[in-house]
Fold this protein.
Amino acid sequence: MRGIYEQKGYSEEWIEKRLRGIAVRDELTDEWKKRGVKEQKEFAILTSEISQATFGMTPAQYKEFKALSNPKENLRDHMTDLELIFTMLGEASTTEIAKKRDTQGFPQNKQAAKDGGAVAGNARRDLESQSGTRISTKTNFKALPETKSKRLGNKHLTD
């Protein structure tokens, strides 16, 4: 997977975050499976809850926000460093909450997803307040010129 991202011009730092994000996501989905979440539709709902609480948008809304028209495109491949980090924080927080609460079944995991996403959402809003910069950006990270994508994170991006 690393080679694919390298060929597309992503920076080493971005690739590291993306690969770590994949590992965090895998840990979360494994935890959900252990806790009785089995259906793909339930995974999608739980993911949506995390995203809504983290960014104020569902994944579908976020794709629209970033003007991604191809439904097969992975939203995370279009995220900046900080967007990836906050996505990971929401998912890692959800995993930790599910473990500590020993959540079982879809309803309990849905609440854990909301709460885990809220942890990331609160952190995002705090950083936005302290830095004066929005984390969610319409900038499509993949569409940045190759030389810029190798250097830029969110700190220089604006809507």
